[in-house]
Amino acid sequence: MQVSVKKSDKEKLILEGFVTIIAGPCAIESWEQLDTIAGIVKKSGLNFLRGGAFKPRTSPYSFQGLEHQGLELLNEVGRKYGLKTVTEVTEAETVEETAKYVDVLQIGTRNMSNFALLKKVGKVAHEQNKTVILKRGWASTIKEWLLAVEYISSAGDVEIVLCERGIRTFEPYTRFTLDLSAVPVIKKLSKLPIIIDPSHAVGQSDLVIPMSRAAIAVGADGLIVEIHNEPEKALCDGQQSLDEKQTKEMLHQVEYIAKFFGKMIR
């Protein structure tokens, strides 16, 4: 029988007095690409590296990720730089395998209502002491989002972090509409931490920095942002990925706002 070990405060994704920034590529493409980006993350003073290994894409002809090889690369590069790792799980059958390689299991917008996956992730996260990020479905209400949390938490004590990543509206200019009002609403209705994904919400790199500022100003506990060493060559979502210079500027601006609230970035 597996025995869960309660996560210490230092191991948690969200810490009181800090704004947590998770950064990395939408998709892991190669060791060289991930190693370069991890170096940027480490140099920036951050602690969490994200990277997609299994990529559910709208088009079946788009790059679908390196799958198992991607998990191995994320684990290897994360250990090299001393970074905690974050990746998305897409199927209940791959949750246990994925958990062997990463620290944080992310459930994407397409799977917020995949209840079999939610329950499996909750069980594995409880047993293996993993954190879970639950993204809001792009057409889901806040009530539905919070009820999805219950499927995960039913397995036992798990650190669950909500992620607002934009919802679908009639506005076509941005990829989705970032619902920043969800932050104070979530804090009013629950005790769960909430982070913002500005990259998927706006879909354009030049809009990511202002929305990152706004997210921290409205009280978000952190950000999950897509960065790339060569966005113009990215196999996935290059148009919304920050390059190294933009990443530095984003962190500078976010840090300024975080300090206003007496917080530090990590």
Layout of secondary structure:
Layout lengths: L17 E7 L6 H13 L4 E3 L17 H14 L2 E6 L5 H5 L4 E4 L7 H14 L2 E5 L6 H12 L6 E5 L17 H8 L4 E3 L1 H5 L2 H13 L4 E5 L17 H17 L3 E2 L1
Parallel strand pairs: 1-2, 1-8, 1-9, 2-3, 3-4, 4-5, 5-6, 6-7, 7-8
Task: Describe it.
The chain has helices at residues 31-43, 68-81, 95-99, 115-128, 142-153, 182-189, 198-202, 205-217, 244-260, and strands at 18-24, 48-50, 84-89, 104-107, 131-135, 160-164, 194-196, 222-226, 264-265. The radius of gyration is 17 Å and the shape is globular. It is built from 9 helices and 9 strands. Strand 3, helix 3 and strand 4 (104-107) form a beta-alpha-beta unit. The chain has one domain (17-55, 63-265): TIM Barrel (Alpha-Beta Barrel). Strands 1-2-3-4-5-6-7-8 form an 8-stranded parallel barrel, surrounded by 6 helices. The N and C termini lie far apart (35 Å). Helix 8 (205-217) runs parallel beside helix 9 (244-260). The protein has 266 residues and is of the alpha/beta class. Helix content is 38%, strand content 15%.
What are the salient characteristics of this protein?
single chain; 266 residues; alpha/beta; TIM Barrel; 8-stranded parallel β-barrel; globular
Binned, the helix content reads 25-40%
Number of domains: 1
Outline type: globular
Distance between the termini: 35 Å
Query: Number of helical segments?
Result: 9
The CATH fourth-level homologous superfamily = Aldolase class I
Number of strands: 9
* Radius of gyration based on Cα positions: 17 Å
Strand content: 15-25%
CATH topology-level name: TIM Barrel
CATH class reads: Alpha Beta
CATH architecture: Alpha-Beta Barrel
Largest sheet: 8 strands, parallel, barrel
Strand order of the largest sheet: 1-2-3-4-5-6-7-8
Spans with pLDDT under 50 lasting ≥5 residues? none
* Mean pLDDT level: 94
